């Protein structure tokens, strides 16, 4: 029995969320996958998964085994690539998580170009605005916008992300154009996210300034907020890659430009055991190259 194959099976079950999905991904039968994992648990003398008719739950020991297995499999992959002379030609699968709006604006055109450049690389993409856990969810790479939490993960800067305050011409004709952040108290705002109060950030006289804003519509999706602003429902604050076309064709007008704070940072975040991964590093360098002018 090959312990590395058992590790791969277990990792695939963890990433797929079920024996059935893992078996379909690997081209094996569900019964074979289940039997191999039972044999793995018997060999280790521990329970890795709690099974029920509705779901699989990983045990604390199973989570520890999964994280260690990911590191070991990554090291084996790098050794094999070096021995076979493939270290200059990336190959393998990248499990990538990226924000939905950013991905729709950029990755749809960039990933095909990346895959054409690197024909031995496969990319599995999950689009989500929620903060994912790279280790427990098995991602090789996550793209994040904004301030990063301190962690053992590695982060590399990809590009800057400029945000814009904007509203439709019709809204401004009806309600007037704000001249300072304090004027927003008299306006309808369309904040990103949930909660009664959201803070918008400004730079006034060279100093950071924040203001609590609220509105009748709060959404955790930039495209919906952009469309609401175009429809005349209020002022919104969004990344340039979401509103650039509407600003260009006049459906939206930029506001408070002299108080716009510094750009956010788009970062590539990955676990330490993927630092030597040729496919991961190749994708990071490709994105840095293509997005060097900002996004």
TrEMBL record:
GO terms for biological process: DNA-templated transcription. Pfam families: HTH_1, LysR_substrate. Gene3D superfamilies: 3.40.190.290, Winged helix-like DNA-binding domain superfamily/Winged helix DNA-binding domain. The keyword Cytoplasm does not apply. Signal peptide: none annotated. PROSITE patterns: HTH_LYSR. Belongs to the LysR transcriptional regulatory family. It comes from Pseudomonas yamanorum. The lineage of its organism: Bacteria, Pseudomonadati, Pseudomonadota, Gammaproteobacteria, Pseudomonadales. Residues 1-59 form the HTH lysR-type domain. It comes from the Bacteria. InterPro entries: LysR-type_TF_proteobact-type, LysR_HTH_N, LysR_subst-bd, WH-like_DNA-bd_sf, WH_DNA-bd_sf. Keywords: DNA-binding, Transcription, Transcription regulation. GO terms for molecular function: DNA-binding transcription factor activity; sequence-specific DNA binding. CDD domains: PBP2_CrgA_like (cd08422). The keyword Ubl conjugation does not apply. This is LysR family transcriptional regulator.
């Amino acid at each position: 029995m090959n312990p590395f194959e058992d590790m791969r099976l277990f990792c695939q079950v963890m990433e797929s969320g079920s024996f059935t999905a893992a078996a379909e991904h690997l081209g094996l039968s569900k019964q074979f996958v289940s039997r191999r994992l039972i044999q793995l648990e018997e060999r280790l003398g521990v329970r890795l998964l709690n099974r029920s008719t509705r779901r699989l739950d990983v045990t604390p020991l199973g989570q520890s085994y999964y994280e260690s297995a990911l590191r070991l499999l990554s090291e084996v992959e790098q050794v094999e690539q070096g021995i076979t002379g493939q270290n200059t030609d990336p190959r393998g699968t990248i499990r990538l998580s990226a924000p939905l709006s950013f991905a729709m604006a950029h990755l749809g055109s960039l990933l095909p170009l990346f895959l054409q450049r690197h024909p031995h690389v496969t990319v599995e993409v999950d689009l989500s605005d929620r903060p994912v856990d790279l280790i427990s969810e098995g991602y090789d790479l996550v793209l994040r916008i904004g301030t990063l939490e301190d962690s053992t993960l590695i982060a590399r800067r990809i590009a800057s992300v400029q945000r814009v305050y904007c509203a439709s011409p019709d809204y401004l004709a009806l309600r007037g154009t704000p001249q300072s952040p304090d004027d927003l108290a008299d306006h309808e705002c369309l904040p990103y996210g949930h909660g009664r109060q959201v803070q918008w950030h400004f730079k006034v006289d060279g100093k950071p300034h924040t203001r609590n804003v609220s509105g009748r519509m709060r959404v955790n999706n930039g495209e919906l907020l952009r469309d609401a602003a175009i429809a005349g429902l209020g002022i919104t604050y969004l990344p340039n890659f979401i509103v650039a076309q509407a600003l260009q064709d006049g459906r939206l007008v930029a506001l408070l430009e002299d108080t716009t704070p510094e750009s956010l940072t788009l970062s590539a975040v990955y676990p330490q055991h993927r630092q030597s991964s040729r496919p991961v590093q190749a994708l990071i360098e490709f994105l840095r190259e293509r997005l060097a002018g900002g996004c």
